[in-house]
Amino acid sequence: WLPGPQSHDQSNTIDKSGLADEVGSEDDLYNEFRSSSNRFGHPGGGGEQLAINELISDGSVCAEALWDHVTMDDQELGFKAGDVIEVVDATNKEWWWGRVLDSEGWFPASFVRLRVNQDEPMEEYLAHLDGASEGGRASMGGPLGPGLPCKEQMRANVINEIMNTERDYIKHLKDICEGYIKQCRKRTDMFTEEQLRTIFGNIDELYRFQKKFLKALEKKFNKDHPHLSEIGSCFLEHQTNFQIYSEYCNNHPNACVQLSKLVKIKKYVFFFEACRLLQKMIDISLDGFLLTPVQKICKYPLQLVYLLKGKRRLENIDKIAQWQSSIEDWEGEDILSRSSDLIFSGDLTKISQPQAKGQQRMFFLFDHQLVFCKKDLLRRDILYYKGRLDMDQMQVVDVEDGKDKDFTVSVKNGLKLCSPGGEEVQLLCAKKPEQKQRWLRAFADEREQVQHDLETGFTITEVQKKQAMLNASKSHPTGKPKAVTRPYYDFLLRQKHPTLPTSLPQQQVIMLAEPKRKTSNFWHNIGRLTPFKK
């Protein structure tokens, strides 16, 4: 009953159909991802907008954040990717009013996707991304030289990972088709065609498509300068072909059931193991191999989002420079000298030794440093610089409610920032437990980002920093007020539930995502392929 000698069938030739050379770039691909209609985005148009408002009125709709929205404006709602937002008002198509925990404010509708009755599970894209990227990092090409700018280096790393994982995936599919399916078909006494179709689905069809897709990628791949590769056109050209994964993913639960029945019989266990050894495959059971296509189709969006993550972050330095230029009485080095990303912001009560007197401050957590400011007593939109803390030298400690022995004061919803030797201790208190937890999560995110930047070599060049600060200084001429005001700010404060103005000056908001793009159904189609959608 063991399989016969391995067959080296060369009949599977690669489709030589040509591709258009100028279909699109990664920016086009990002357009597809950001603007898809149902699974990855929000609907638009008059009729659909009315339907959204009807759902909101009966409390049956909420939104899931696709991107971080970190803002300096009290009237805007900040959130992290993956947060669930209660949509209160969606009258305006561009900006919605929503609530996260006890915070309310405006947020860009393009940053979220709708969830009705919370039936649809959310994908933690970036959380899975870092873990997924670790496996491929070892197989990436070596450094491209000290002269390559950070943006191009990061892009080259992701392009190399996409190409390497794609080649590995092709070998994986080939091993399944030649190592398992071909041998199983020889044993008609053990397997029927119906059984084989249930176990392996249309994986042979996936193999043929992926060979053609890899050939298209290879044509666009610039081996000497990976960062110049324009592989986005390959995804756009083959977007309809990815639909074949729908059949495979939908069949996968049936494959697991059928396989679980067979492996209870010893001869099938021995047979599958013999197939693996003859094909010289890694030591993973057959069900593990068959899971790979399901994981692969889910990984494509993660890789492509990551491809543009570094690009968006570099674009944020102009906005950070503009923010600094709006702060009164700034002291010390520029924020860009050490930081390049705003991670979280909000109000906290700061208690310092030895007086142990509480001060209400607005805190801004960047990578490597925490800046705190004081709001003007009359004009709350004006911020005065009051200091900063070096997060590389601070340890975050969760403080239990009750009397604190260091400050001899009663503490509620508190946390401490302590220097290694205990020379400096800052006690910070949030208004509610939920806010404290969000800050604790933000501090953890800051440390993870610093570590990730260190591993990937992410840096901002001195030229980029100087240019950003120069642009910011031009936007705030000498003698003019630097307050982070908006034309509608006072109007908003006078209303219990304000209505959105027709225009919002984007330069005053740090928004970590791309603007709205043209519509397409590519990523909507990709989203439909997952077998776990309820």
TrEMBL record:
Its main location: cytoplasm. It is found in: Cytoplasm. Residues 341-448 form the PH domain. Residues 1-21 are annotated as: Disordered. GO terms for molecular function: guanyl-nucleotide exchange factor activity. The gene is LOC107732940. Residues 154-309 form the DH domain. Keywords: Cytoplasm, Guanine-nucleotide releasing factor, SH3 domain. Residues 58-117 form the SH3 domain. One of its GO terms (cellular component) is cytoplasm. PROSITE patterns: DH_2 (PS50010), PH_DOMAIN (PS50003), SH3 (PS50002). The lineage of its organism: Eukaryota, Metazoa, Chordata, Craniata, Vertebrata. It comes from Sinocyclocheilus rhinocerous. InterPro entries: DBL_dom_sf, DH_dom, PH-like_dom_sf, PH_domain, SH3-like_dom_sf, SH3_domain, SOS1_NGEF_PH. This is Rho guanine nucleotide exchange factor 4-like. The keyword Methyltransferase does not apply. CDD domains: PH_Collybistin_ASEF, RhoGEF, SH3_ASEF. It comes from the Eukaryota.
